[in-house]
Write a structure and sequence with these properties.
CATH class of the largest domain: Alpha Beta
CATH topology of the largest domain: BirA Bifunctional Protein, domain 2
Distance between the termini: 90 Å
Number of domains: 2
Strand order of the largest sheet: 1-4-5-9-8-7-6
Number of helices: 12
Helix content: 40-55%
Bound molecules: phenylalanine
Number of strands: 9
CATH superfamily of the largest domain: Bira Bifunctional Protein, Domain 2
Strand content: 15-25%
Order of helices and strands: HHHHHEEHEHEEHEEEHEHHH
CATH architecture of the largest domain: 2-Layer Sandwich
Radius of gyration: 42 Å
Structural class: alpha+beta
Amino acid sequence: MAANLIDSLLELKVQVPSLPEPADEKELDALRVKYLGKKGIVSLLSQGMPSVPKEQKPEAGKLLQEVRTGIEQMLERARVKIRREKIQREIEQEFFDISLPGANPGFGARHPISAVMEEIVDIFTGMGFQVEEGPEAESDYYNFEGLNFPPEHPARDMQDTFHLTEIEMLLRTHTSPVQVRAMEKYGPPLSVIAPGKVYRCDADITHSPMFHQIEGFTIDKKVTMGDLKGTLQTFIRRLYGADTKIRLRPSFFPFVEPGAEMDVSCVICGGKGCRVCKHTGWLEILGAGMIHPNVMKSSNIDPEVWSGFAFGMGIERVAMLKYGVDDIRLFFENDMRFLRQF
Ligand code: PHE
């Protein structure tokens, strides 16, 4: 029996290289079961091991191992070959149209408000202004008091304030608080541009309870109304084109003196008169003026030495005029059909 086992193993070892090559996965499986399965030839042979005389055991063990490895390697080679042939057949048979257009996952785009805001900030940083931001939940001091709105002053009512607490905290109604914050933080001379969200309790087709403003101001020695006008002229020409005209009309804001509102020649009709400019040829675009001495004093800046101008504008309004949009709510509905047009 012992000699038999070794003989059988030797015989098998010789046979392995010339075993019939399996043609497909089914034949491959059958071969695996036949030789390596639980009741396969190799395990049947290994059951004879206990009766092999001690001195022949190493040889028998080694042979058994060689036979098993040989068969395993043969099966693995066959498996790889079958698989490769299968893929090759698929490539040859399948039709693949390389001229078909790819699936378009759809691109996002910058929101028109962000785009206009960035454009405006770029124009001013190009003129030497630094960008500053302030909190949206603001104190009464920065939103009103430090800007020369005394308590109970009727001008506070113009602002439709959302109050967060009974006194003191509110949602800022404009970006002007950043004037006070930046003056405290840096002192003069100073040129700042401050974009951000503001809130007013007001809603119709041209007003939204949340909207965006950009504040700008300059403080230096001998700053005049002429500097204000020149700065705004330069800005408007870059934004709306070289032919755009501006005009300043007297107006009132507690934190500027004198105060003004600025109009631009109608960007739709060029000043001839149309529905958008209500046949006046002009569109109101921002508030501005010379920074009030009281505002400087509250930030420890001497108004006898320093002077400055400030202006503030609503971004939605600028964007509505730039793109001819007539309902402010379109900017906040985020309907892709609207947003894709920019
Ligand atoms: N803060 C003013 C507003 O929201 C605009 C403004 C800014 C006016 C700076 C004058 C100077 O209406």
